[in-house]
Amino acid sequence: MLNFKIEKDEEYYHAWCPELKGCHTHGKTYSEALKNLKDAVNLYLDDLLEESLMIQNEKINENVIHL
User: Fold this and answer.
1) 5 φψ region: left (φ > 0), alpha (ψ -120 to 50), beta (else)
2) Global confidence as pTM
3) Measured between alpha carbons, how far is 33 from 5 in angstroms, rounded to an integer?
4) More confident residue, 55 or 38
């Protein structure tokens, strides 16, 4: 389970997930910031999965070429 933090500054709510470096967003309300953070986390994890699959495919291709 991932943790999240939401803090209010002068105008907006700043939201982030400490476990996911660089995963930050904001919203005008707490609810908007939370929704935006859920979207940001999903995109972040999708990108990690895609990158991992690309790396695995590259390794498979390297092994096939060397056979």
Assistant:
1) beta
2) 0.77
3) 10
4) 38
Structure tokens, 9: 């500054």
**Contacts for 28-36: CB closer than 8 Å, 24+ residues apart:** 30/6, 33/6, 34/4, 34/6
Round to whole Å and give the CA distance between 41 and 20: 8
Structure confidence by residue, pLDDT tens digits, 39-61: 999 999 999 988 887 776 666 66
Q: All domains of the chain, ordered by start, with CATH?
A: 5-66 (3.30.160.250)
**Gyration radius of the chain over CA positions:** 17
Q: How far apart are CA 27 and CA 17, in angstroms?
A: 15
